Each structure stands twice: as structure tokens, then as C-alpha cells.
Amino acid sequence: MTHNLCRSKVTHHKQYPENTTFVYSYFESRGGKFPKTVFFGLQYLIKRWLVGPVVTKEKIQEAKEIYNLHFGQDLFNEEGWNYILEEHDGHLPLRIKAVPEGTIIPYKNVLFTVENTDPKCFWLTNYFETLLVQVWYPMTVATNSYYQKDLIAKCMQETADDFSGLSYMLHDFGFRGSTSVESAGIGGAAHLVNFEGTDTIAALTIAKNFYDCDIAGYSIPAAEHSTITTWQKDGEVNGFRNMLEKFPEGIVACVSDSYNIWNACENLWGEQLKDVIIERGERNARLVVRPDSGNPSDVVIKVLEILGRKFGTSTNSKGYKLLPPYIRVIQGDGVSYETLEEIGRNLKRHEWSIDNVTFGSGGALLQKIDRDTQKCAYKCSSAVINGKEVSVFKQPITDSGKKSKKGRLTLELKDDQYVTVQRGKGDTNKDILVTVFENGKLLKDFTFEEIRKRAEIDLLKDK
Ligand SMILES: O=C1OCCC/C1=C\Nc1ccccc1
Question: Which reaction does it catalyse (predicted)?
Fold first, then answer.
């Protein structure tokens, strides 16, 4: 309970009407940057924080001490927590119903509901808002990553032979820019719902421990500035040559903008090391040149033009230029949903297939989002007071967009559209929400594999 160090929550048990025995709340995206949301990450929160006998004597004591110091008076609901410890053996008397992880849902639809299963624990439903709303982060990373996948797929549809490289087109560079190892793991796992390329190792642990996935992402040997610049400016070509010699097989990436990316492409890769690069091609080995500065869409084109002149190009089935298979480009600087759009347009304009390029994204992928990006909110919509169930809602005259839903909710499909039925008028047999948690037990354990399938982009949809 101490993870909800949010001041206000601790006193809420005193604020509900007398004889409140049931509080029912729901979570939704009210809209925002993207019209749909890829729902992901609730299972991590449930397994990490809610499953099992999470309420213990020690934790109650610790919380009581902290809150008494924090408020300077005894406001902590010790009786309420002791009740859970004694009556439920420390298990949380809550029911959580959620849309299956990986589902893609238009905004303003219910994504999960929370209700107390013991009438004495009405105050518990919204106690866990603070923790459960943190699902905004993995959900928004998964969504932002999904829309970049859709964007790249559209560009592949027009300029690439097929979609075979799609799952490696956007690589996670975001570990260092994350706020913590834990958030890097959570956000990194969310990106891997849509892709398979990552350098955020923490994500592999989350996918393995919370989503039953042995290995959720892959990477390749790649240089960084220090492993090139330690060869000194005049020795840059030696650093490049060393990369090719130390990694003779497979794919190797080499950051090439330490001094002069144009010179690196023209004279180092394009002349001094040209034969080694071509010879590697005979072993299906590949060099990936990484620019890392300048305006992304201009630099990508200029690097392709130089490498195209040096190594030649072919024309693919869509009529776009393609470098030989042994050399490609990765753009890992300044990549976001917005800049990808521009890079894609520029590639087409200069008749280059997007198959020549892969992308890396860091801050924009894991960090440049917040709870408002998709306007995530958790609101009470129903309660039982004096034995009578009543609808509950807010409808601020100062922002109609913040209006909340009423009564018990179901999520149903009507004519292939998701619809949230309110006021308990839904058909629980058609409810897409499934009970994932109840009284301390996880009832649904989604695997990464099925989540990836559910979140697949529709490759055939009008690209
Ligand atoms: O160049 C590359 O090729 C593909 C493999 C990854 C990679 C670079 N990784 C990276 C990670 C964190 C910050 C910057 C780069």
C-alpha cells in the first residue's frame, strides 16, 4: 500500500457517503494523439503488485508510521487494512475486468473496470487508481510504436518488394533516455509488442518474467562513437576496418559521423574499404552505415546517394532504387512518428526504397509521452449506497471532454465496431472485457506471442 504515497487517497475512506458498500470504476483513453490505443501492460502491474497475499502486518505497520508522520495525525485506515489481512488473508478483495492485452481499441471505450468484492472494502477500488493508471505508460509506448509500424508499412507497401523486414524496421535505442531501469523495461517491452529489434535489454526480462517470452527481441554488433574515436581522427578508417574484421559474419553497424559522414561514405566505406565490404557480401555479411547527426531526412538521402554511386543500385519490383544486399543505412537520430513521415516522403521523392534503411528511436519512443498523450483516466461510474446501486459521473461545465461514463460498463462489438454500453444495459455474455484478477488471483495470463498476434497491423488494409 505504501506505493500509493499519494496524500489524498489515504483519507478517502472517510469521504464516501455513509453505508457505501460498492465502488465501481473504469479506465479509458479519452482521445489524444492517436485515435486508437494498443492496450498493454496491465498484466505487468497486476503480477508485480497485486497478486497473492500482498497485505502484511509489516506493511501495515510501515504505512501507518509513514502516514502518521506525513499527516501529523492518525488518518491511516489501519482498521481497513487489518480487515483485509484477517478476513482475506492479505489478498485484495478486488475484481478487475480488462480488454485482452494487445487489443487495439478506438478511444473513449472502457479498457478495464475495477470493483470491490467485499462490501466493507468499498474504499479499495479507487485506492488502486494511483497504481493502475500507470498502465498509461506501456499502453502509450505500444500505441506510438504501433502507429510508426503502420506508417513504415505504408511506405514499404509503396517502395519495398515485401513486408519481410518490417519487424526489424524500428529499433529501440531508448534505454539511456529512460527515467529508470524499471520504466525502460516496461516501455521496451511495450515496443516489442510491435517489433523485434531492441537494445533495451531490460525489456527482455519483463517480457520473459511477466509475459512468458523466452527472447522477445534481438540486436547486432554495433559501434558507438567511443569505439571509433579512440582510433583518433586520422585512424577512423582503422576503426571501421576493425569492425569489419572483428565481425566477419552477419550484420554489423557502424556509426560514421564522428568527423565527416560524407567523407566516411565517399572515401572510407566507398573507396578504402570498398572491396572488403563487397567480399563480405559473398558470405551474406552486411555493413549498416549509421549517420547520427544533421537533418534526418536530408542526411539519409545524401548518404544513400553517395553509397549508391559507390556500390551501385538495382531497381526493385516497385520501381525504387535498392543498394546491394551487403550495405544498408540505419538512421537512429531524431526519429519519431513525425520525422518518420517526412523521411518516408523524402525517400519516395528521391526514388529510394525504404528497404535501404532501418531506424532507431530512443527518447521519442520511450520517453516523449505522458498520461495526456492518450488522455488516460480512471473514474467511478457506479456505486451502492444504503443497498441501492446508483450511477456516478462527472461532467465539468469547464471541459465536456472530461465527461465520464455512467453505470456498469461492457465493451461489445456491434457491426464490427467496438461499443461501450453504459448503465448496466450491456450483455455480459458479449462483454469483451475478461476478468483478469479476482481476490488476489490472476485469472488470465496473456502470453507475449498472443499479444503480438492481437496487435498485428492489418497489412492488407488500404495502405
Ligand atoms: O547501430 C545499431 O544498429 C542496430 C543495432 C543497434 C544499433 C545501435 N544501438 C544503439 C543503442 C542505444 C543508443 C544508440 C545506438
Answer: beta-nicotinamide D-ribonucleotide + diphosphate = 5-phospho-alpha-D-ribose 1-diphosphate + nicotinamide + H(+)
